Amino acid sequence: MPRKTSIPTIPKQAEVLPVSADLMEARMRGYQARIEEVLAGALPSADLVPQRLHAAQRYSVLGGGKRLRPLLVYSTGEALGLPVATLDIPAAAVELIHAYSLVHDDLPAMDNDDLRRGQPTTHRAYDEATAILVGDALQVLAFSILAQERTDDLSVAARLKMIQILANASGTAGMAGGQALDLAAVGRRLNLQELEAMHRLKTGALIRASVLLAAACAPDLSVAEWGALDGYAQDIGLAFQIQDDILDIEGSTQDLGKTTGADAARAKPTYPSILGLESAKSRAQDLKRRACDRLSLFGGRAEVLIWLASYVVDRRV
Known about the structure:
The protein is built from 16 helices and two strands. By secondary structure, it is mainly α. The chain has one domain: Farnesyl Diphosphate Synthase, CATH 1.10.600. A two-stranded antiparallel sheet has the order 1-2. The longest helix is centred in the C-terminal third of the chain and has 28 residues, at 223-250.
């Protein structure tokens, strides 16, 4: 069975908001339930030809995962006072791109993983050829829904801007380029600057895009506000990857839903391998603080984004 989606409780010492952690977690669970419905509606039915491919798409996307990228879309929109319905399509689009990237990253030609979100990876549950096609189809679907779904309060210019943001974050200047650098780095020792440049593309680009997709829906956003959100997104994108590297050492396969210790087994450069474990933890905390400081001009409106920054760094899954 797929792993249930969950928002883990952030330790008390990590809380930086006056708002109740329980209320914030409930809000996030509401967004997770909402995006699950949006994704289920956007994906082709498993009854439609080709049934096996459509079933594999749904298997790869639905029923698990943190949904961090949609949470960032919804939370940024909340900070900007945008209607939640306006954010459904960009939230779904970025999650479809993320899901496609996981399916392809798990393939034998890439990371050769057997477990994802507590269940067999797509190429194990189906086969390698189907997994390749799943990734191809999910990528196309992401751009299709951005281009075709109608939202009355979004201009054509905003829709085109979102398409460009997601395309830039997905290609060689973003996620795909970062994955290429990651593959080339196996067995090599990178310096910190090289490692961060790689992860700004591989992991950070889609996290940054999640925030900017929502920002693109706000027609009156100032240059300063855009810059603050962009800087916040870049900082938590790196912080997320650092915590992923830490959890690969300290986490358990049962909690994470994927095999731990894989980075060391593949001789992949990570933040702990370059900085040491404690310095990596310190770097993540520094990025979290800087990300939150960037949001000062939004005042109380940014509380949900500040909470998410703590979630990114202090999560255990």
